[in-house]
């Protein structure tokens, strides 16, 4: 369900506004109506955003080193500021070293074909009146007469490339129609030693960064949280309207209705004028879901789609039981369900400091695992084996009581689809009544009468014969409601036309929606077949050896079922979500688009 919200408006004297905002932030219950204007031009806000990005980058860098923390302490924001400066300084030095190393390695690559020589020797020859030219050309470009004319000497050959020098007397170097090589000023051995030194310096800087990663990540996170608080504070300030020549500050927000007394008690100690009001049509009211117990576990799935609008029904409690059942049918293996349940239970027993959200997710996985165990008993599948082949009274009693064959599982999938779709249409009529009034729900109620009466006549002709008087009465009432109240604000002819259009959409769309639920049967069947294939491979591919045979069989069994569990659990999550978000939400008339309630707080 959606928590009731109350609109609250504050009017504060400008000199007391900062103190008031800090008090409201400490209270932590007001969702401030923020405005986009002014944020882009506010230099202080932009600087805080850039600072937050710097903290995020530093945290990501240090966490990416994979160094385990050696200290467990509460983060200190002041130490985090110093840690950011140290981290960025070390990173800057490392980047400079990397650029220099890249340049020196490039020089080494250029000089390696010429070998290791002292550049001073070249300088001495030049002072003696000899010019040395360095050239590179293809082997077929080299002319033998260059050896006589310019004393050309081949220094190296790599593939089809020749590296040669010329020695000529005078002030000019011969201009040959080949590539001229410009060599570094240092020798190859000096450059190689420089590379070694630079890599050693890089290693030293990396070790310093790792030492920081062992201790300062909590401090960086604390400092980042403080910056986030400053950003939120700045956004609230920018969302404030000014009145009376900037003397009065006007702020609007939303608060859960049940917490209004708490806020009222707090405001008695503040010199501030405030008003409360109920939401009006057109207000962008933030959404706070308040489901309890079992239904609360499925709220993350709703958030994956979108939150409802304030005047809509929260469909979380209505799709939760279906989702649990659909997951179990899609996975469809009691062994896999038992494995999920035991694995998560053991993890919860031995894990330390689980957050509330993580505990909620783990509880949901346990419930889905239990659902899979129950649904797997419909076919008797357990790790690809059939439990009902075991000749024990317990399993044989289960087989006689709840076992279903493939045709019955197929029919069950279609029945569940029809039930959920009609249930969604009932919710749609309730939603229309709440939002617009009962007359806008009459058309939907008419279609429900048509579909339900036809389904009852088909399934139980003894109660209501197909085409009998009672059935025709329900059909007639349903048709009149669907055709004459399709759009209450329009005339009767427009309503009839829209009713015909709805009939076409209902005939084509409803069939496709129901057939979509066949995937519940198909996924469970395919998963069971694949599990049995891995069992057959484990037995068939194990060698006839007392030691190696069981080892190979166990390895194939474990690896095969691990792959199957991963793929089937993924499918068992995705496809029920698809049925919920597309078929169920569409037939329930769900619009969504609500904005989450986020109170201004530390």
How many DSSP E strands?
Answer: 13
Mean pLDDT across all residues, rounded? 84
User: Which range does the strand content fall in?
Assistant: 5-15%
Distance between the termini: 27 Å
- Uncertain runs are none
Share of helix among residues? 55-70%
Large-scale geometry: extended
The tally of domains stands at 4
Count helical runs: 20
Index terms:
602 residues; alpha+beta; 5-stranded antiparallel β-sheet; 4-stranded antiparallel β-sheet; 20 helices; 61% helix; extended
Structure, described:
By secondary structure, the chain is α+β, with helices and mostly antiparallel strands. It has 4 domains: 5-77 and 216-287, no CATH class; 117-186, no CATH class; 292-403 and 517-588, no CATH class; 404-512, no CATH class. Helices cover 61% and strands 10% of the residues. The protein has helices at 17-27, 43-63, 77-111, 119-127, 145-150, 188-215, 217-238, 260-267, 293-296, 299-305, 316-331, 334-350, 356-379, 393-402, 406-435, 442-459, 469-484, 492-516, 518-540, 548-587; strands spanning 5-13, 31-32, 130-138, 153-158, 161-169, 179-180, 241-243, 248-256, 273-277, 286-287, 381-382, 385-386, 595-596. Strands 1, 2, 7, 8 and 9 form a 5-stranded antiparallel β-sheet that branches. Strand 11 (381-382) and strand 12 form a beta hairpin. The protein is extended, with a radius of gyration of 38 Å. The two termini are 27 Å apart.
Q: What layout of secondary structure does this protein have?
A:
Blueprint: E1 5-13, H1 17-27, E2 31-32, H2 43-63, H3 77-111, H4 119-127, E3 130-138, H5 145-150, E4 153-158, E5 161-169, E6 179-180, H6 188-215, H7 217-238, E7 241-243, E8 248-256, H8 260-267, E9 273-277, E10 286-287, H9 293-296, H10 299-305, H11 316-331, H12 334-350, H13 356-379, E11 381-382, E12 385-386, H14 393-402, H15 406-435, H16 442-459, H17 469-484, H18 492-516, H19 518-540, H20 548-587, E13 595-596
Parallel strand pairs: 10-13
Antiparallel strand pairs: 1-8, 1-9, 2-8, 3-5, 3-6, 4-5, 7-8, 11-12
Helix pairs in contact: 2-7, 3-6, 3-7, 11-13, 11-19, 11-20, 12-13, 15-16, 15-18, 15-19, 15-20, 16-17, 19-20
